[in-house]
Amino acid sequence: MFQTTQYKGTKQEQYHLLIKQLDALLEGEPDQIANLANASSLLNQFLENVNWVGFYVWREDELVLGPFQGLPACVRIPAGKGVCGTAVSEGTSQRVHDVNAFPGHIACDAASQSEVVVPIFKDGSIYGVLDIDSPSVGRFDDTDEEFLSLFVKTLEKHL
């Protein structure tokens, strides 16, 4: 959910506005690190009840920590490990209602209780993942997953 002081309208309308802002913010900027940093900042500013928003980038057969907002995080995650590694190995988004029930969950922040991870592709290959954690069980729903996937599709155009 977005901070209601900034946005009015349905959750879907709020996400549409956020995605338009991302597209405008990244337009014409070729630096991938700058674009990932601004994207994580934008999400962190507008999403409520999250404690970590950021990116892991695929480097030499593992995910490596990229730009993020939140507490220090795990630096390297192998494919197939944890929620992020599972998103990479399966090539699909992962929405976890309760991370404590996820087999092999990597606890970088003990406060995180739910998570959504969306894989990012560039030229048909894995580029990395968008990872968002919440201190509340069940924070993310179908709408979040759908629109965060659209957010990533918009980001992919600028990578």
From TrEMBL:
Q: Where is the GAF domain?
A: 60-156
Highest taxon above the source species = Bacteria
Gene3D superfamilies the UniProt entry points to = 3.30.450.40
| Entry similarity comment | Belongs to the free Met sulfoxide reductase family.
Name of the protein in question = GAF domain-containing protein
State the organism named in the record: Halobacillus naozhouensis
